[in-house]
Specification:
9-stranded mixed sheet; globular; about 35% helix; Dihydrodipicolinate Reductase, domain 2; 2 domains
Length: about 325
């Protein structure tokens, strides 16, 4: 029996875009039918490889009557207009995080998609990684007792490498660079694991990048449950990727491909369990793209839809306001402005 497939037009097919192209291919219910990238030779090569149409512009891509949905792997500051154009053309939308550059833009996009009855999904794949799915299970089983706090760091040296795209170093196009590009992954993941964030305090500095780019950031978040979270993200340091969840009866240590569970008895370490997820590969990306197809085919709501994308972005916007005002910022104030 032939599987029904959603025909996809993808904008942005280089770098991370290639990861998503491959995930579209492997999802099983999607077909890359058209693509567009400002790199014309790369665009033609991908189109040839996947027997797809090489669109000459984004406008041409979204107006293609043969596609059902648009996938956006494009610079943040382009998302709002590109989402609006795709929805106006009647296309379902998958947009890489952040959903848009500002909360106000995100609200408009969500409302527009909802009114049009179209699927809007945001690319927060990190929560779908095996290590975090397993952490969620351990938390639901209360294996570490009552959670008392979280520490996390997601950093990389992209800001001091030669191939950094210019828009990332422009605060008007990518505000609070490390948190918008990296930390937002853990903002969404912590929310998935432990619940909504209520308030934010953040400190940021320009340490190593030229200009006024805030390349080093640390934030304290408080969940609605009261649990504190310490999240750091640097764009000018060695790679870092960990989430540690502390409880009264143990600790869950998460790294990209491993989970370490330390169990306590009367406050003393009594047992250590380790799990390896090194066979995961690009699974989290494939899973999210397959879900995108299922949402369109079955009328399902995405796990990371517009509302989830909005909440993650609102935390980053709250961090920026905290830096600017040297204050603690309530998420409700960001969301209701």
């Amino acid at each position: 029996m032939k599987t029904e497939k959603i025909r996809i037009g993808q904008a942005g097919i280089a770098n991370h875009g290639r990861t998503i192209v491959n995930a579209v291919r492997d999802a099983g219910n999607l077909q890359l039918a058209s693509c567009f990238d400002i790199n014309e030779s790369a665009n033609r090569a991908v189109a040839k490889e996947f027997d797809a149409r090489a669109a000459a512009s984004y406008e041409e891509l979204v107006q293609d009557s043969s596609i059902d949905a648009v996938v956006l792997v494009t610079p943040n500051h382009l998302h709002a207009d590109q989402v609006q154009m795709a929805i106006a053309a009647g296309k379902h939308i998958f947009v890489e995080k952040p959903i848009t550059n500002t909360v106000s833009e995100a609200k408009r996009s969500i409302a527009f998609a909802g009114k049009a009855g179209l699927t809007l999904m945001v690319g927060h794949n990190t929560r779908r990684r095996r290590v975090f799915r397993r952490a969620k299970q351990l938390l639901s089983e209360r294996r570490i007792g009552t959670v008392v706090g979280v520490e996390a760091n997601l950093s990389r040296p992209a800001g001091i490498q030669a191939d950094l795209p210019a828009w990332k170093a422009d605060p008007t196009k990518c505000a609070l660079l490390p948190m918008m590009q990296l930390g937002i992954h853990f903002v969404d993941t912590v929310t998935y694991l432990l619940g909504p964030i209520a308030r934010v305090s953040c400190f940021a500095a320009n340490v190593a990048m030229p200009g006024n780019v805030l390349d080093s950031t640390s934030a304290l978040l408080q969940l609605e449950s009261g649990i504190p979270v310490a999240l750091s993200s640097y764009y000018v340091s060695a790679d870092a990727y960990f989430v540690r969840i502390y409880g009264t009866e143990g600790t869950i240590h998460c790294t990209p491909l491993k989970l370490r569970l330390e169990l306590l008895q009367n406050g003393e370490l009594r047992e250590v369990q380790e799990e390896d997820f090194s066979s995961e590969g690009a699974e989290s990306f494939v899973l999210q793209m397959r879900e995108f197809g299922e949402c369109i085919l079955r009328g399902m709501k995405p796990e990371t839809g517009g509302d989830e994308g909005l909440m993650a972005l609102a935390v980053i916007e709250a961090m920026l306001r905290s830096v600017q005002t040297n204050s603690v910022v309530e998420l409700r104030d960001i969301l209701h402005d």
